[in-house]
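hey so i finally got around to running both of the ones u sent me last week. sorry it took forever, my laptop kept dying halfway thru and i had to restart like 3 times lol. anyway pasting them below in the order u listed, first the sequence line then the structure token line for each. didnt double check formatting much so if smth looks off just lmk and ill redo it

first one:
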Amino acid sequence: MFTIMAPVGVAKLRARLFLLFLCLTLRAGMLQFASATIQGYIGDRDMICPSVCRCDEDFIYCNDRGLSSIPSLPPSASVLYLQNNQINNPGLPTSLERQLAIRVVYLYDNELDEFPVHLPPSIRELHLQDNNIRTIPRSALARMPLLEKLHLDDNSISTVSIEDQAFADNPRLRLLFLSRNHLSSIPSGLPASLEELRLDDNRISTIPTHAFRGLSSLRCLVLDGNLLANQRIADDTFSRLANLTELSLVRNSLQTPPVNLPSAHLQRLSLQENALTHMPRGSLDGMHRLLRLDLSGNNLTTLPRGLFKDLDSLGQLLVRGNPWHCGCNLRWLYDWLHARGNTITVRGLNCHGPDRVRDMALKDLASEMEECELVRTRDRVGGGGVDTSTTHTPPQGSLFTLRSKRPGLGLPDSGLDYTLSSSGVGKSLALNVKPLSHNSVRVTWSVAQPSSSFRLSWLRLGTGNAMGSITETLVRGDRREYLLTSLQPRSSYIICMVPLAASSESKGAISGDADSDEALVCAKAETSDPTPLEEDENEDSKKMTVLPLAGIVGGATAIVSLTLIFGIFCWYGHRTGHLCTRDHYTRKNSRKKKSCDDYIESGTKKDNTILEIRSPGFQMTPLAAGQPMQPKPLREDYIIHTIYPSNGTGLYKGDNHVSDAGHGTNRGYREGGIPDIDYCYT
């Protein structure tokens, strides 16, 4: 029996062990399920999107919500759109610094008045434009060492409000926008990694030599809408930017392009809407990679020959809004454009003069340019001629011009071609003259020491040795070039200059003292023959000058004749009695139409409803046709005044106007819009 019960005990033991194993297995599964559920809940909680925002994976859209503070964000957020809200500096939570996944933040068009300081250090791109930020502290930027793009347009940042070395801790900054702020100079301490710098629409007027020092990586520089002039830009300012590919100087006060422009890599040059009057020869040399040149909206009349000799890659030339003079001076440009063919797009190269080619495109002047070729051939055969392809340049800036009857200058031998000379008091002056056309000469000079002003004189030489009158003018001391115009063609001129000291400026323009004679430097220039196009233009200008004079004389004669005829007619009518006498004359304002057979003049309109005549008075009666008028008494007292109906309406008031109790007095009439002539008593 014992042997039979043994197998039964083993079976029960096995069953109990199996149940125990099953329970343990179920418990382990439940624990795993609970753990997974808790982890999933936590994961879902991490991805909760703010109720006022919209989320798309790691892009959080909270823009245009009227928010005054930034809501709690999920840790996975990488791009925040917070623009067009009312977020101020207290609305930036300190917990934002721990959001290490954020790379881009859009906070433009909010109410920030200080640079935000609680931004995460992982930011690469930050948009803060359209706020009221006034300062840029170094400590705030130092919290973002990975920053690459910073937009600070349309704020209130001035040059002095940018802390010294503010960008020193941002070695990766590649793009900096500071447009439409209050900058008066280029910010200092810009990082060497900068590739694009926009400073347009500020108040920058001066660019010193060191302004762009160390910015060897800069490729795009925009300085539009500032106060830049040639005199306030250092000569080697832009030459340091060896890798520059785009330079924009739109809407400034430049008269010529800045000197020493970077040429190796420049692709886009924008100089429109300045005051350019001259493009110096060589100002575009070496720009073999230039693709787009914009000279629109200036005062250019011509371009010097060879200006585009290195522009092999130029594809766009924009020159609209300039008064181009399409004479032989632009024959080289005509040939250059035809040689380029369809490889270049030109906009706005339309002629402003001479009149025979006005509003025509330069490339369409085939016949006119053939005439220039004939003139050039003739000049080669004769051995004369002058290169007239140079621009008519800088505006004249003389203070005043005097004509002296006596030759107060000791002019050298007219047969010599004068070169450089030095003054007897240790000041040197180099003078250079160059004919530009048949009636203009360009004068340039350089001095070793500054002078308060210069006296410039020129004399036209005749066929004999007799000297004519000398024309003198004073030139400001900061000028280095002058344009002589209205000269005689085919003439020789001696042009002299002398620097004036501050004490002798007032008398140097009139008297020639010994010191001035010793410092005198002269040169000789000869004007050329006018070209056929210029002769036609001169003829047209002479005709246009004669026509207004003839019109003025003819008009004056006609007016005098009509006045005499009208006077004779009035005198004759007065003598024959067909006109009203002086006693019955009335002003223009009283009646538009009046004849002699009307009522006797009473000073009011013919309306019995608004006229009250008190004794002694007189009676107003119509006169029969042809009945002679009775003479008026020598003196009578009349009491004539306007009577207004009881409802308050009157001559100058509409039916809807409410009557004023004050109309019983002159003040009431005046305030009611009634002219003084209608409430005065006679």
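and the second one:
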Amino acid sequence: MFPSFLYLLALANSVYACGGDGHTHTHARRSSTPSGLTPPTRPLQWGDINFIHTTDTHGWLLGHQKTSFPEPNYSGDLGDFASFVSHMKEIALQKDVDLLLIDSGDLHDGTGLSDGFPPGGVDAHDSNQFLKQLPYDVMAIGNHELYIYANTLDMHTNFAPALNGRYLSSNVNITTVDANNNTIDVPVGDRFAKFTTRKGKKVTAFGVLFDFTGNDHNTTVQKVEDMVKEEWFTSEIAEEPDFFLLVGHMPVQRDNWPLVFNAIRAVHPETPIFIFGGHTHIRDCVQLDNRSMSLESGRYMETVGWMSANVSSSTSSDPISFSRRYLDTNRLTYQFHTGTSDSTSSSSSHYPRSNSHSGHDDHDHDHDQGQGHSHSSSPLPSFDTPLGLQITQGLNALSDHFNLSFQFGIAPEDFTINQVAYPSSNSILTLMGAQVLPFSLTVSRSNFSSTSSSSSSSSSNSSDFVTIEGTNTTVPPFLMLTNSGSLRFDIYAGPFTKNDQLTASPFADAFNYIPGVEWGVALGVRGALDEAGEARRIRKRDGGLGGLGGLGNELEKREEELYRRGDVRRRYMDWMASQVRRHDTPDTSDEDEDLTLGYVTTDSCPGIGDDTLHTPLRSFDIPDFISSDDPFAIGGTPISQATASSSSSSSSVNSTSSSNPILTNSTLVDLVFVDFIQDQLLGILNDVQAQTSGVDKTKKKEFGAGDVKTYSTLLSTEVLGVWAIGNWS
């Protein structure tokens, strides 16, 4: 017999205390460079001003620890990165040039290090202590710092002061109280920074967030178009620096950087402008004119961005010679560019540290400035620095403190978001919609027996109850919905730990439901939610649901609203798919077959941006929403059976047991959904009902927030763990 939900919950809660639970605790530690990595293709090109850039780290400070490629490409942890920065700073001193370290925001929401804190903690507070140890010159706020007020307050109170005026939030305020308990509305960090580099270059810097609308109460995001009209902004750009440094959580293309750029150009037509963006998780570069460059450096500590330029040698009107590179974040990359090794040793062929800048870096260069490019047999310096080792040790201690290695079960295979077609059996979307949600949420309904009983009478007759296979749980029939963007990362075969659970599903969303929704209407909601994302236009559907009619405006606005609330999945997926399209051409070289999987970047800047060559991962389109209505569902009825023919029911794969009812379009069901999409779902639900009812809308129930109830005490961060305990143990 399947274990009770209370037993599952006790096991899941035991992740906060090691020992005595009967489950395995694995403590994976990486001691050196993983095997099978491809080294960089050429040295970095240096200028008189140089930048190292990170963005969208989302708590990935212990690196990517799985062995399936492309994960080893990104296996370096924050301690390794700190050692890399230390060596690069030393090289900059030797070359007598400037090197600035930049970050474009989103430190929260992504792994157990940021999100696995015990009750009473604040997201990313502990993991951010390690970021504060790096010598960042400028950091900017991201939207993930704003979803929860406590996180924003922590950044304002505890993080920003550590950067001494260099944590920038030019258009983001927080409402709090001062020392006299007066309410004040102030920037989370600082609006701008003016400073002088080691080599004497004067810098004016801003930190800009895109037009984000998903921020919590008592936080304010000013639109970019309004910010550039502010008196303080026009005043601060009046004096010409040696260059402007625009750092912000906004993609370098298809957003509002041109508004900031043009405002500066109107005053200073030829002053160099360096832009470092983020948010869409891609590698990208563009030049808005020949005296500027804009760089976006990926996500999840998979990419370190590099930009360099020679500004001192150019006149005020000459084009500036820029270079940019996207580095894979592993020790082999770091050692290649710093001329170091895992331990001090003798080598007859040292990795070159760097070349001086001499144009775009799409070709190798033979010369350097006498720093680091050596082919002697002298010992290579050790890569690890005291600070780097200290950070790695501290991160591992934090992982132990959060019990992130607690093992829920063993994943039998890789489950990926978009490397396989949906609904393939090894798609994590199929796993979540067809198995995890029906299993975990309905089992947890044992805590809600009274609620379930009361809802049963409003949802369906007792004969319509659904029995979930593999359990002793019987619930009213349901359709479960969640947005695919809630799944942020793949699951890899092997131990499935607390950290893996939070990595795959880091957002602590609740599951609500509306009882008494007709099955045909529920299916219509599911179809309507996908219309804009799948086809990019309004379509008509078959199956008696009628045309979308009044849904048009809802669907046209949906994608833009999701983006403004922070959903970047569509842009990232489009970027991944474009890599495959460019690669799958008749002129693809046979040499590509020997490359490891990884990013293959094509951007709008001259030359080759990727530091290491790869072959792209397969990428398939995925739906914006997933549900329990596909042919692999454990409970409910597949979407193809909306007409409830008994013959089609018998052909379903792993759907309902033989004792389960056959649903018709008029069967009343529980419409279960993640609370993140509640407002959107209610509007579409009522519109679909009006389109499909065939009767006057005034005679049908208008669903509102008062009809929404709590379906389960489980959060979206917990359902995978419950599934793994019950099915992967």
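quick thing i noticed on the 2nd:
The first strand starts at residue 44 and ends at 46.
anyway thats it, ttyl
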